[in-house]
Amino acid sequence: MPQIIEFPPRPYLGVRRTITMTTFHLVADRIGEIIGRLAERGTAPAGAPFLRYHSIDLAADRLEVSAGVPVPAPMDGGDDLYAATLPAGRYATTTHHGHPDQLVGTVESLLRWGREQGLEWDLTEKDGAEHWGCRLELYRTDPRVEPDMNNWDIDLQLRLT
């Protein structure tokens, strides 16, 4: 069952790219590298790694997405990594258990639930694209521990206005 949770600002290190549905790996595959860079600096992640959707234009098959790893305190990125902060606020959240390819149904259910509750997303639409204030998929399952993606737990967090 979805719920609404208030989150504080959450600093992270990330990489941001404009991709298509078939080039998702160009962003998602960088999560391990970001975690490795944190380890080199002696810093442990402060939470689950995530994908952040900045804009989605399915008709044009164009998405602007960040892969990020929360950090305990703001820090410099270096190279093509950047430091940023997930905005504080109220988020509608739910958990998906299963393969990431099956997330679409869970996202649709969360969006439908939000409409039924009369919630307003931190979302603007322009030229056929959705521009999200903060839309996240947090990957709580460590693939080194559970390599079977069908057994992964993924939290969805969509910021409300």
Along the chain, the helix and strand elements come as: EEHHEEEEHEEEE
Q: In percent, how helical is the residue content? A: 10-25%
The strand count comes to 10
Return Rg in Å: 15 Å
Described by the principal axes of the CA atoms, the overall outline is globular
**Oligomeric state, counting identical vs distinct chains:** single chain
Q: Alpha-carbon distance between the termini? A: 20 Å
Q: Identify low-pLDDT runs.
A: none
Mean residue pLDDT: 94
Q: What structural category arises from helix and sheet content?
A: alpha+beta
List the helices and strands and how they pair.
Layout: E1 3-7, E2 10-19, H1 25-28, H2 31-40, E3 50-57, E4 62-70, E5 82-86, E6 89-97, H3 103-117, E7 123-126, E8 129-132, E9 135-139, E10 153-159
Antiparallel strand pairs: 1-6, 2-4, 2-5, 3-4, 3-8, 3-9, 6-10, 7-8, 9-10
Annotation keywords:
161 residues, alpha+beta, ten-stranded antiparallel β-sheet, 10 strands, 18% helix
Short structural description:
InterPro entries: AraC_E-bd, GyrI-like, Reg_factor_effector_dom_sf. The chain is α+β, with helices and mostly antiparallel strands and 161 residues long.
Structural summary, described in words:
The chain is α+β, with helices and mostly antiparallel strands. 18% of the residues lie in helices and 41% in strands. Strands 1, 2, 3, 4, 5, 6, 7, 8, 9 and 10 form a 10-stranded antiparallel sheet that branches. A hairpin with a 2-residue loop joins strand 7 (123-126) and strand 8. The longest helix has 15 residues, at 103-117.
